[in-house]
């Protein structure tokens, strides 16, 4: 049978399983049906809910403007799928081509799409994490519980970590007139995403709005009373804070544990796949029947030096899911790459913060428009003489232009006249990102064997 005939047979009566009832999973399923796939379609989700929208969870839901149950994603069409909700995927058998669920069921597939996303990184001490008043924010249930707690008027909230989610939670607290302390071990909020030059503006925003921002410190312990309620937090500088709510906002963990032993290139940083969303195995060989999309996927992007990017962005999840769905039911010559330019947005303390490109690649920065002192500006990041990213505070209307600059490899620093460009911000400076040479993960693989016929990749456990 020819490749074209195989694809046509797959479209008519193939079995596709999507593990991850997420934004990416839903949009992929819709795309498959749009493309004429009439076979069986199964969506697996570990939560009991059909796909919902996550951005409102740290904004409207926490502010009490929208109930968590109203965040369900709108459907573009009927997908005629079997939903397996409230049961997680437990393992993958690539040889048998089936996904085993936590309840013991096995789902056979001809094509598998993994869209399992991420989960919140928990507090490092389980007994402290179990205290009444300690929260994380990732799921619909997390947001509903935290919203109820904030509505009850706690005396003081501690936010542990000042990334985008932590900063948004702090903003919600101040909007609710709740006292909040933010503990961040970096020199400023958002420093890992935007660099210290821009992050100083984020720090000023927080303090101007009444946030007790403490940088250069970490939380060492959470203390509860005899009834198991949170009462105090201890910091690395020796101080202690009386709090009755703590929100752990220390980033995300990609949901790949169920793939241990599957032979796929899946680990703490996500699932490695090619630009067409096909997953690699541990030997770096691309699979033809397993795909990944959304937050859990890592894929190379030609615009950014073919770096493997893991993007926790709403728009990326949608576009990557559509590319994956298209490629799953297309012959080789008809497949297309995922070339979405990363974009991100956040609203905090009344300011819209948006970015395009990959700011963390930047080795230089200029303030192309506006001024840092006015908290209304566009910062343009350069890498080896070309524009690589831009970030804006209340100036998002310009980012479409900078996206074009990124896509066309425009020279850096910008050599054209800009609207509202200040004479004191013309010279490029170091954006001051954390040292990228510092390791964030232990090695996870070793090479075994000496003969080419024996040489392969083997996973190793991280050091304790």
UniProtKB/TrEMBL annotation:
The keyword Oxidoreductase applies. Residues 344-421 form the Reductase C-terminal domain. Residues 15-321 form the FAD/NAD(P)-binding domain. Its cofactor is FAD. InterPro entries: FAD-oxidoreductase/Apoptosis, FAD/NAD-bd_sf, FAD/NAD-binding_dom, FAD/NAD-linked_Rdtase_dimer_sf, Reductase_C. Keywords: FAD, Flavoprotein, Oxidoreductase. The keyword Zinc does not apply. SUPFAM superfamilies: FAD/NAD(P)-binding domain, FAD/NAD-linked reductases, dimerisation (C-terminal) domain. It comes from the Bacteria. PANTHER family: APOPTOSIS-INDUCING FACTOR 1 (PTHR43557), RIESKE DOMAIN-CONTAINING PROTEIN-RELATED (PTHR43557:SF2). This is FAD-dependent oxidoreductase. It comes from Streptomyces griseocarneus. The lineage of its organism: Bacteria, Bacillati, Actinomycetota, Actinomycetes, Kitasatosporales.
């Amino acid at each position: 049978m020819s490749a074209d005939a195989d694809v046509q047979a797959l479209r008519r009566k193939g079995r596709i399983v999507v593990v991850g009832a997420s934004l990416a999973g839903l949009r992929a399923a819709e795309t498959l049906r749009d493309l004429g796939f009439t076979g069986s379609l199964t969506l697996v989700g570990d939560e009991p809910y059909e796909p919902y929208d996550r951005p409102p969870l740290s904004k409207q839901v926490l502010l009490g403007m929208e109930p968590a149950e109203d965040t369900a994603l709108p459907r573009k069409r009927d997908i005629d799928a079997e939903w397996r909700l409230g049961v997680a995927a437990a393992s993958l058998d690539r040889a048998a081509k089936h996904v085993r669920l936590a309840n013991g069921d096995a789902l056979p597939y001809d094509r598998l799409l993994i869209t399992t996303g991420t989960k919140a990184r928990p507090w490092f001490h389980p007994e402290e994490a179990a205290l009444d008043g300690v929260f994380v924010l990732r799921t619909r249930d997390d947001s509903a519980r935290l919203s109820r707690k904030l509505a009850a008027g706690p005396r003081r909230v501690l936010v542990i970590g000042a990334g985008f989610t932590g900063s948004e939670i702090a903003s919600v607290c101040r909007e609710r007139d709740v006292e909040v302390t933010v503990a961040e071990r970096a020199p400023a909020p958002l420093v890992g995403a935007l660099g210290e030059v821009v992050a100083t503006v984020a720090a000023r925003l927080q303090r101007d709005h009444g946030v007790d921002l403490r940088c250069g410190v970490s939380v060492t312990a959470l203390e509860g009373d005899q009834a198991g309620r949170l009462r105090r937090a201890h910091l690395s500088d020796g101080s202690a804070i009386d709090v009755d709510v703590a929100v752990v906002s220390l980033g995300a963990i990609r949901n790949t544990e169920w793939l241990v032993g599957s032979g796929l290139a899946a680990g703490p940083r996500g699932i490695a796949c090619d630009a067409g969303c096909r997953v690699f195995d541990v030997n770096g060989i691309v699979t033809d029947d397993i795909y990944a999309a959304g937050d859990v996927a890592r894929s190379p992007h030609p615009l950014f030096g073919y770096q493997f990017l893991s993007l926790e962005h709403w728009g990326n999840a949608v576009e990557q899911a559509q590319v994956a769905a298209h490629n799953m039911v297309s012959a080789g010559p008809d497949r297309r790459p995922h070339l979405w330019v990363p974009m991100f947005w956040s609203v905090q303390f009344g300011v819209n913060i948006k970015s395009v490109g990959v700011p963390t690649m930047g080795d230089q920065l200029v303030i192309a428009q506006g001024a840092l002192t006015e908290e209304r500006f566009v910062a343009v990041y350069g890498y080896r003489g070309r524009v690589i990213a831009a970030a804006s505070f209340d100036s998002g209307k310009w980012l479409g232009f900078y996206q074009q600059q990124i896509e066309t490899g425009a020279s850096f620093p910008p050599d054209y006249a800009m609207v509202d460009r200040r004479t004191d911000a013309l010279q490029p400076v170091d954006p001051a990102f954390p040292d990228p040479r510092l390791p964030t993960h232990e090695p996870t693989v070793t090479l075994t064997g000496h003969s080419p016929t024996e040489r392969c990749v083997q996973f190793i456990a991280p050091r304790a």
